[in-house]
From TrEMBL:
This is EPTP domain-containing protein. PROSITE patterns: EAR. It holds the Pfam family EPTP. The keyword Repeat applies. The keyword Magnesium does not apply. It comes from the Bacteria. Keywords: Repeat, Signal.
Length: 368
């Protein structure tokens, strides 16, 4: 596929970033500039047999700074077994929440600490540490003047008994720190996503083994609204179109599904792609709305098949139409951002065809 024909001409490759087991991409802008944080799961150990859950997980998360149309290395945070970085602001204060799934080089410890940093005097300073178990992802959101952090975590492995709290949960900001607010019943959490529509607030939770779910805010807490009885839940994204609330759900084991809210439930409307979908990125481009489906692996962790491409869909006539694919390598996340009126896309790649962690992540110009 030619350089400028990626994703049906929507993407032009600009830069390869030398990442290792990259699990997410977080782009954020402050008065200091535009930055990219990349949590990394592990680095390869010389002589070790290929294994996607092996490697040396005592690794850092690079933070790049945007300069002259590309990202340059700027700083790094210690983040063993890195899974996620979430940037957010509260009352002018700037924070980064980090999550890692494990520490060690084998055997590994899934009881770790998740750290929230605050930007003070040009440095990221630890503000609060959380005891977590197989932490996957933070999601920050606000309801009126209340501020929350949602933590998706947990895993089920024979013989592993958590020492730290293992439920996915919500924390609320009390003005100086985050305090426990609500727990969820899932055993293997991956993702939270919030939507506000028609005066109501909805929180979706993706879980690998316990069924993914959507909850509605009742003014005091989130109460169950709908459960999707299937394994493999990875990610949710919401958007508004045609006067309705829509939801996209990526399931690693089955397919990605588009739902429309009918006022009471989310109703399945369309199936998008097959197994392997891990993350979703919605883009409001110059030519319309697009959906990037980051595709990871099929098979099992012990015998994975790296999915060699991800997909781009365009919203048309109340559904998504596949407009192209582009080469990725066990993609784990995608993020879109705008600098000087130009839109870009950055994608994290986590494994090579040989099941090695050292795999470039990629910056593209988005032409749609």
């Amino acid at each position: 596929m030619a350089r400028t024909e990626l994703g049906a001409g929507l993407l032009t490759t600009l830069q390869q970033l030398p990442t290792s087991g990259a699990r997410a991409v977080e782009v954020f802008t402050t008065d200091e500039g535009t930055f990219l944080g990349v949590p990394q799961l592990a680095r390869d150990v010389p002589g070790e047999a290929p294994y996607m859950n092996g490697g040396d997980s005592d690794i850092e998360a690079p933070i790049y700074r945007w300069q002259d149309g590309r990202f340059v290395e700027h700083e790094a945070l210690p983040l063993p077994g890195g899974e996620d970085i979430e940037y957010f602001e509260i009352d002018g204060r700037r924070f980064l929440a980090t999550a890692g799934i494990r520490t060690g080089k084998g055997p590994y410890d899934l009881d770790t600490e998740a750290v929230v940093y605050e930007r003070l005097a040009g440095a990221w300073v630890p503000l609060q540490r959380f005891p977590v178990f197989a932490a996957k992802q933070w999601s920050a959101f606000s309801l009126d003047s209340r501020h929350f952090l949602a933590l998706a975590q947990g895993v089920v492995i024979d013989g592993v008994v958590p020492k730290h709290p293992r439920e996915s949960c919500l924390f609320e900001w009390n003005g100086e720190r985050f305090v426990p607010f609500q727990t969820f019943n899932g055993q293997w959490g991956y993702n939270f996503a919030l939507a506000s529509f028609g005066g109501e607030h909805y929180l979706a939770y993706a879980d690998h083994v316990s069924g993914s779910s959507v909850h509605r805010w009742n003014g005091e807490t989130f109460v169950p609204l709908q459960t999707f009885d299937e394994n493999g839940g990875r990610a949710f994204r919401f958007f508004e179109a045609e006067g309705a609330l829509w939801m996209v759900h990526a399931n690693l084991l089955k397919h990605t599904t588009l739902y429309r809210f009918d006022g009471a439930q989310f109703v399945e409307m369309q199936v998008l792609g097959g197994p392997g979908g891990r993350e979703l990125c919605l883009i409001d481009g110059k030519e319309g709305r697009y959906l990037v489906r980051a595709c990871f692996i099929t098979g099992t962790p012990k015998a994975p098949a790296v999915v060699p491409q991800s997909e781009i869909f365009r919203w048309r006539d109340a559904c998504f139409e596949l407009v192209g694919d582009f080469a990725t390598s066990a993609a784990t996340d995608a993020a879109s951002f705008v600098v000087d009126a130009q839109r870009y896309l950055v994608v994290s790649n986590s494994l090579s065809d040989e099941i090695r962690f050292r795999t470039d992540s990629t910056l593209y110009r988005f032409n749609g």
